[in-house]
Amino acid sequence: MPSSAPTTVDELGLQGCLYLWALLTGQEHRLPIAQTKRMSLVVMAYLHERSVIEVPWPDAQWEIKLDAKTTPIEGLQWRLAWTVYEPTLLIDALDDYFDTLARDDFTTAARLRIWMELGSAEAERFFEQQLVKHRFSGDWAQDIAFAYRESAVVLTLAQWRYCAWAAVRRGASMALQHGLQADGLRDTIYQEIRRRAASVANGAWTGCSFPPYNPQPESALGRGFVHRLTRLGPLYWTGWPSVEVLLGHAIEGPNRLGVS
Which residue of 69, 205, 207, 211 has the smallest Cβ count within 10 Å? Predict the structure, then answer.
């Protein structure tokens, strides 16, 4: 059941403000809200539980809701329920919140947790692209979230992308050579992700990193993290998620949208 709505952006908090910024920015600039549809649903559920937005769930959409919006990429309906701020001024209120956010242990820990969360979603998105490219089921993409969480290794996002790429290529090779069925292939690919991640983390292989050609994150959530919560730039992909990296690249001056 949704809780009572926060009375200020400060009460909504760092994660809530980032999620709302991503929803508003994605809606305005025709961007994916998050890296995957599953992560976009997480964003919207978080805001719904805090009475910031309304959603038609469990229905797919409202039959009649004149002020409802539909996310341009995911096709998810929502309606702004938060009346504390004028809708046209809300994004400015969020930007002001980010501009004055303290650099203390609490916010640094929150930034690190979000970076780890986004890393899993970015890896899942890239993994899905590779699976579909090789004519495997895109539904298998969620498996990398388990590997990301259970492998007990810390890799850069670019290294996780490499592991996903290599594992899918391994699966495609096994399919051609041995004609494995879908269940066997899925487990082979999953185990290969974990094996690659362990080897890369241990330094057994070098150069195993696939940063994207364009370091600008595709999703509004990724851009909000890079441009509003940090100034990581390409280190979003190539830096090890850590307090040290975050503190070494603090926010310096406004860079509000990052949506060009």
Answer: 207
Write down the pTM of the prediction.
Answer: 0.90
Query: And the tokens for 111?
Result: 């930034």
pLDDT surpasses 90 at 173: no
Cα gap 87→25, rounded to integer Å: 13
State pLDDT tens for residues 186-209.
999 999 999 999 999 888 778 899
Measure the N-to-C terminal CA separation of the chain; round to a whole number of Å.
38
Percent of the chain exceeding pLDDT 70 equals: 93
Instruction: Copy the structure tokens of residue 139.
Output: 């539904």
